[in-house]
Amino acid sequence: MSATLAFLSGRAASDYGALLSRLQWRRAVRADREVEIDLAASAGETFGSAPEGETWWLVREPASIPVAAGGAKNAGAPAPPFPPPKNGETLPVARLALEASDGEAVHTLRELESAVFERPAPGRPPAVMFRPQAVPALAGETVGAYFDRVTARSAGQGSRLDGSGTPFGAVVLEDPSELERPELSSRVPSGCRRLLDAGCGGGATSAALRGRHPGLAVTGLEKDPNAAARARTRLDRVLEGDVASLLRDLASAGERFDAFLFGDVLEHLSDPVAALDAARAAAESGAVLVASVPNAGHLSVVRDLVLGRFDAVPAGLLDAGHLRWFTAGFLTEALEEAGWAVNSLEGLTGAPPPDPEPFLSALGDWPGMDRVSLSTYQWVAVASASVRA
Fold it and tell me: What is the reported pTM?
């Protein structure tokens, strides 16, 4: 029985992150061939020549990781491939969130391999498995319409997702810039008039601020064209390009801002201090900057390193796009080096990592061990523009 693994063309989550996601799908499906297809293409031309009995796996979510291990935690053993379909079976791949059945948050690939998922998350399936000959394409039907029809047909057949068998699903790594992040927006002073959102992504957080504070003008900076296009529907102005370069250009043009938002962007920059310094040059007197970064000292990262693992994933603590790694000390130093005075620095824990106690107990009373850092998922700093000498 042959199998084809299909990805949508032009739907990459990020260059490197998408490659890693595809690698996991290859390992889970182990198809005979791999293709890229377009949602606007003809379904008849795409699937009509499929051989008798051929199985297709169509992956629609570019930032998803298939889960093929479960029922019991397996200490990071390699995931077996997805089971082959029964004759004529059409199944959706269950959409899973980064939270296992016990309420713990999965942060790394190793933890994902050992997690138990009992319930699918709401939303469209990230992929579907089907046999084209069992679902003939309709006249004039596009691949996108075909996918929707196959997904609807397969919904009643379930996803084989239960607590005792092999989960048939994929974790979907959502874009945090599509939802407001209150831990950041609540720290932006309400009296600000000109906000610069560096690395704004889809712009949901600064858009929420703009909606609550009439008169607030928001300029977003974003490197990814697709994210920038979404942000333009929400913000006053969005500029595409490198954050540090755009900030320097704005400062040189005499533009000034009284608030800056760096929400999980500094770790993606080759020179975060240069970007913060450029923001300082564009800052009005007394301007406030809110920055968040993932914590490189989180228990999930430290534990993986002790076990000899450091696997990049499309998003999260070990995001494939991270170029720099932050602790509380490095974030403070970067801000101060760029001329910002740190007013507060808080560690947000987020959901607990899987099974932390054995690791913490094994460390015992290790001299100088920073338990606060181990339990911190991200650092959030609020800083003000200090007086230049």
Answer: 0.86
